[in-house]
């Protein structure tokens, strides 16, 4: 009985298992045997069982106490990274493992990013990205349940990833256990623990990691929510500050706008506006009319007319300020009307406030243009209106048109040509700005009609004018431009017919697949004769075979007859000689003379067609009783 009480005393003072064994050993030395010894052994076993159970209870109590401490620690920090670090540190200490880490998959679940790690020694560091194609983590995310392996690299119960295996091997890990971090039944991350020894995790340990993961999930989600809320609050604060700043800027702009408008309405001029804009924008400023004429300049401007033209074209095409190589160009508009351009050369980059001011200055400039009625200020508009009236149907009084033209420095009774250019898409606005400037520089007129830029320019060669417009405009637009011309016209009434001829020429070029080229009615040969408002048949014949007709008239030869027989015989001198009943050598000599008179290339396909058409017209005139006076293109009786 005394020995049995010894076991109770040991339990009371939490003696070690060795001390329990010592009681039995002492009794055996004292000669206790038989039933007494068996009873003592049984008492020892019961005492050790009670001792082990007490230890487990104490351990569980310690674990729960530590878990409670962990909960308190997780509840304190609002920062997500701090929470993750607390979770991994506590996991490693609670389960007495070598390391712990947290991985979070990307939105597309293709990779897992290590967000926190504790106890690592080599490759497994924060920010490391591992493929989510296999391993313990993939199984946990798929099943939303804890999973563990006693020896990761040799376990074939899951798919292995070469990259993940490399990291596990570098860390020297064997046993790995993982539990899902879950929010609203959906896993958003994985809590791992790893040991560098082969280890079989117990049920209590699995339960402990799951509990820690559940606790951490709630706290992490809370932190993520707070982080998102803080981000939204910060974004809202920034937006409020920006709104307040914009309101202040708008108030300043409204004040400036009012001041500039008062200046314009109280007798201000373009120069005053340019100087005020230059002062406020800390820049050199220039105002130009629609045709490119300079209205006012404040400050020193670089001599880059090509750059200015390109900027003006782009600004009016976009109908908003346009920046190009250190220069801002703002269109001066009134509805759809193009009144001019504001050019600004700042000494430093313009901020948002300054760019808004650009538009305000351009608006005030438009008001000045519309208010100013001084000669020359609205010249660009007058030039466009004059050309519109010249093209009007019914026609305007010729004398009034002549008077308006003289006021603009033009004489409508001298030779002019009508040039039309057409392009597609966004390039139309650019082309209109260029055409207005070009017409002004050439002393001509410009308007837009039927989707085409219409120019009335001084000159007598429409083909040359068309090619000049194409050569200058096409490189600027970097897109095909079709240009057609007609003329010359030498009185107000003929301008409209010249426009009609040029438009027919333009449509014919498009139909024939010649878009993007330049030509006049005269360049189209016989087709040009058909397109002409008043077909010049005699002129066509004179251009095609006039020298041959003149040679026959002066020398009474038969070159025209030989030329006709030559084409009728399929361009064969031998068959032509048979048809004419002369020797082939005679035909050859006549053809040589024809070549001298018509020049090289007379047998080319396009030119030979015009020659044959001219021969047919001569023959038809002869049959009808008329004739052609060679060299003059006039009919004779």
General description of the model:
The longest helix has 63 residues, at 203-265. The strands form 4 sheets. Strands 3-2-1-6-5-4 form a 6-stranded antiparallel beta sheet, sandwiched between helices. Strands 8-7-11-10-9 form a 5-stranded antiparallel beta sheet, sandwiched between helices. The chain has helices at 2-12, 17-29, 34-75, 80-95, 135-143, 162-171, 203-265, 270-281, 305-318, 352-371, 379-390, 398-407, 427-441, 462-477, 492-511, 526-531, 537-555, 559-568, 573-580, 584-598, 605-623, and strands spanning 99-105, 111-118, 129-131, 147-149, 175-183, 186-195, 283-289, 294-298, 322-324, 327-334, 337-346, 416-422, 445-449, 452-458, 482-489, 518-520, 627-629, 634-636. Mean pLDDT is 78; it is low at 373-380 and 628-637. Strand 5 and strand 6 form a beta hairpin. With 637 residues, the chain is α+β, with helices and mostly antiparallel strands. 57% of the residues lie in helices and 17% in strands. The protein is built from 21 helices and 18 strands.
Describe this structure in a few short sentences.
The chain has helices spanning 2-12, 17-29, 34-75, 80-95, 135-143, 162-171, 203-265, 270-281, 305-318, 352-371, 379-390, 398-407, 427-441, 462-477, 492-511, 526-531, 537-555, 559-568, 573-580, 584-598, 605-623; strands spanning 99-105, 111-118, 129-131, 147-149, 175-183, 186-195, 283-289, 294-298, 322-324, 327-334, 337-346, 416-422, 445-449, 452-458, 482-489, 518-520, 627-629, 634-636.
